[in-house]
Amino acid sequence: MNRFRLEDIVRPNIAELKPYSSARNEYSGQDAIYFDANENPFNRPYNRYPDPLHTELKKKISVLKSIGVDQIFAGNGSDEAIDLLIRAFCIPGKDQIIVPEPSYGMYEVCASVNDIMVQKVLLKSDFSLNTEDVLRSAGQYTKLLFICSPNNPTGNSFNENDVLLIVKKFKGLVVIDEAYIDFAPHTGFLKHLHSYPNMVILQTLSKAWGMAGIRLGFAFAEKRIIALLNKIKYPYNISGLTQRKALALLDRMVEKEMWIRSILSQKEWLQKSLGQFSFVKKIYPSDANFFLIKVNNPDAIYSFLESEKLIVRNRSKMPLCDGCLRITVGTEVENKMLINRLKEYHEHY
Q: Which superfamily is assigned to 254-348 in CATH?
């Protein structure tokens, strides 16, 4: 049984930290005349600091996700939550995190910036989790374990039972990054959050919601974890412009679902179309809005497409991804352009 205790893994200085109190923390009412925050009285509404706790935004997300407002952290993309989790729980030069490999690169970057050691655990050859190796890698100073599912760059979702087994046995926080969950045929791990106090789930508006440009992501966790993140975040980490735009776009659920259906349909068409080329050795299944293909000359194909202003990601240097390119699904017009250019490559090279 996992005897997880939050107080055992939080950094002592963070637990004792008295957070900065901004003007809008101390007064959050409406329709007041403000003399408290040294703001410029002109150029309204942009002259005023935004809500530091993103109250209306979190209320909206609370309804969409069926989760309490006090279990939601809003950040400047999911990357902010990743960084804050590492800073809240990992002592620089002492503690470590575990990251399956290959996976999203920002886990390692954020750890390195904070002088935290990264223990990498190779996935199995079919890109599934090696649960025994993951748990075996955890030691006295292992505080966090990051699992991206559906995984970037491989596109596959990890087996639910494998992930829950790790959550049950791991004594630190298990952070499940669900940036691509809206494209998956399953609902993810949010439904399990109430059962596991050491589970943190990351989601974003950058992918299915089409809001990558406004930089907004969320962490869902037990309220004490969220309180710690709010304690150490910058006071006004989400701009007023971002909060207002997100509130407006979150009402477009029907359009968002239409986008998802289009992307999934186009992914199927792209994968089928790519199967006609002899230089494509394997097309990997994917639960995301992208997929990997294994080709016989990834550098040449990447360079050819780049010269045509069609940009894919060359992932061939990553572990287990030898010869692989990652392709993000575009619009129908864009996808046809990609296939037509690859036909030219196939004919001439």
A: Aspartate Aminotransferase, domain 1 (3.90.1150.10)
